[in-house]
Write a structure and sequence with these properties.
about 550 residues; alpha+beta; Beta-lactamase; 3 domains; four-stranded antiparallel beta sheet; about 20% strand; disordered N terminus
Length: about 550
């Protein structure tokens, strides 16, 4: 008579029998692990599972599945709908990605896999690593349950039409920013995509320097008012953050409606900017002068071996601060690429690479006629010269500046260029030696306000840094640039004598895509705007009217 023999199982729970067996020694070369597991479902469990939401154990708790699906879709690996559910298609897409670009997939998507995918997605779009020069990008459909969004206002209601499924418009000339030259406004899916691309660059740890916040951040009093223009802009324009500070009180504070984007904007949202970072770099230079690291803005750059045999060596620092270093034969005005090689100065190598190349900076001389010529390279030279002068104290210096002077609430991230060997864990000493610093910064909206408030306090209290700002203002130069529709003069990386604004010392920090900080030094007014594209919004009204009138009309 036949007998039924039960196989031993490892454990049984909720109608599932789990078996685990060793892989025979002679077969282990065919397996990734030394054990294999099998499971058997009971009939009851199968019936329940048929009516349940599919759940796969291939992803660790805490991993943002929706973001994983978005990144895999952008890289054309087809993980299925971007719905936050880890299914067979997502599992297959993850496996295909890691098989192609890494050393295979272990079958479980952990935080480590997420970090690798995120890093790859950022690096590949900036054409830096992995030996891949170009990569096709695929559109991501934005799911939407609502055909429209209503935003309540004081006297009116703005209705923002949304498609059921918006597709991202990719701009081939830029990995991370919407070109300001286009004269139309992209849809919300595209705005959100490019905002997140730039905001998440701070997570590229090998090319960022993180400054931790203080335990006692600067606080602001608030008496928030509403205005129909602000409501309208937050509901449909490219402005994503708006703050107005007036004589000790935050009067206007606005973010997009929570149902406009999938991403929820908060006070912890980051707004990166290169060109506003130029102005902050000048403020840092003033702090370095006051700390005794730099003797004077008129002192020539003669103690920096990295810059020997270049056009910047021997020039007074003030020439670079005012963007009149005579370097237009090396880099075009308003540009970030070397003229002869076409190489961008950011994201691929430190200054050392340029000073070794005779087609870039090696053996160059400054032009005898030095006129205002705005460029990214000049600002990078300033930041790296400051790092060189401060030397081994730089990390203490920058920490003291942001924690004790500015009193930031959230981490601030400073851009850095990769080293010559693309090290993933560069030391500050190597960064200083090779000139890997950048002037770019990524900070939260209120921390930008804190930076502006620190500048204004120094000005009004006539501190050492305040005297520096006043001296730079008194030594401002005329731009004589008909193409510059914003300001008439330039004050050591600050835009001054703003068009259509009269009287008073008003400093403007202007960034790409509509990023802007306006500081009325004497009347204690500050405007901070975070945006993802300029031109297609009420930027002038929001930035100028509070400075002129003290309120929005």
């Amino acid at each position: 008579m036949l007998a039924t023999k039960s196989n031993s199982y490892t454990f049984q729970k909720d109608g599932i029998w789990n078996f685990s067996r060793r892989v025979p020694a002679d077969l282990r070369r065919h397996y990734r692990t030394g054990r294999i597991s099998n499971i058997i479902f009971s009939t009851i469990f199968i019936i329940v599972a048929l009516f349940a939401q599919p759940v796969f154990a291939g992803v660790d708790e805490g991993v943002d599945v929706q973001k994983v699906q978005t990144m895999l879709t952008e890289l054309c690996f087809r993980p299925g709908p971007v719905d936050g559910v880890w299914g067979k298609k997502t599992e297959r897409a993850a496996e295909q990605f890691f098989d192609k670009y890494w050393d295979g997939y272990e079958g479980q998507f952990t935080e480590s896999e997420f970090a690798k995918l995120n890093q790859f997605n950022i690096e590949i779009l900036r054409n830096i690593n992995f030996g891949v020069k170009t990569l096709k990008r695929c559109a991501v459909a934005k799911p939407s349950n609502k055909a429209s969004v209503k935003v309540k206002q004081n006297k009116a209601s703005v209705k923002v039409k949304q498609n059921q499924s918006e597709k991202i418009h990719f701009f081939d000339e830029s990995c991370c920013e919407i070109p300001d030259k286009i004269d139309w406004q992209p849809n919300d899916a595209t705005l959100e995509y490019y905002y997140r691309k730039t905001a998440e660059l701070r997570l590229k740890t090998s090319q960022m320097y993180k400054v931790n916040p203080t335990s006692n951040p600067r606080k602001f009093k608030k008496q928030i008012k509403s205005h129909e223009t602000i409501d309208r802009e937050m509901a449909k324009s490219t402005i994503l953050s708006y703050l107005y500070y007036d004589d000790g009180i935050v009067v206007y504070d606005a973010l997009p409606p929570k149902d406009r984007f999938q991403y929820k904007f908060t006070d912890k949202s980051y707004f990166p900017s290169h060109s506003m970072g130029k102005s902050i770099t000048s403020y840092l230079v003033g702090h370095a002068v006051c700390q005794g690291y730099i003797s004077s803005v008129d002192a020539p750059i003669q103690d920096w071996p990295l810059m020997e045999n270049t056009l910047y060596y021997g020039q007074p620092l003030i020439n670079l601060l005012n963007m009149k270093a005579g370097d237009t034969h090396v880099i075009k005005k308003y540009d970030g690429n070397f003229i002869k090689t076409g190489r961008n100065i950011h994201g691929n190598a430190p200054l050392m690479k340029a000073v070794w190349n005779s087609l870039e900076l090696k053996d160059t001389s400054a032009r005898s006629s030095k006129r205002y010529a705005y460029s990214n390279l000049t600002a990078d030279i300033i930041f790296n010269y400051m790092m060189h002068r401060i030397g081994n104290d730089f990390e203490r210096f920058i920490k003291d500046f942001y924690q004790n002077k500015v009193k930031i609430e959230h981490p601030v991230y400073l851009w850095m260029n990769p080293l010559m060997d693309h090290s993933w864990s560069p030391t500050m000493g190597e960064r200083i030696k090779q000139g890997a610093g950048q002037y770019g910064i990524s900070a939260t909206r209120y921390d930008f306000l804190r930076i502006a408030k620190a500048m204004m306090d120094d000005w009004q209290n006539d501190t050492c840094e305040g005297k520096y700002l006043k001296e730079m203002y008194n030594r401002r130069i005329w731009k004589n640039d008909a193409s510059d529709k914003y300001s008439k003069t330039y004050s050591a990386q600050f835009h001054t004598d703003i068009q259509r604004l009269k009287g008073g010392a008003i400093f403007a920090l202007i960034g790409y895509n509509g990023q802007k900080i306006m500081i009325d030094m004497d009347n204690s007014r500050i405007v901070v705007i975070g945006a993802v594209k300029s031109l297609r919004n009420a930027e002038w009204k929001l930035s100028h009217e509070p400075i002129i009138y003290g309120f929005l009309r």
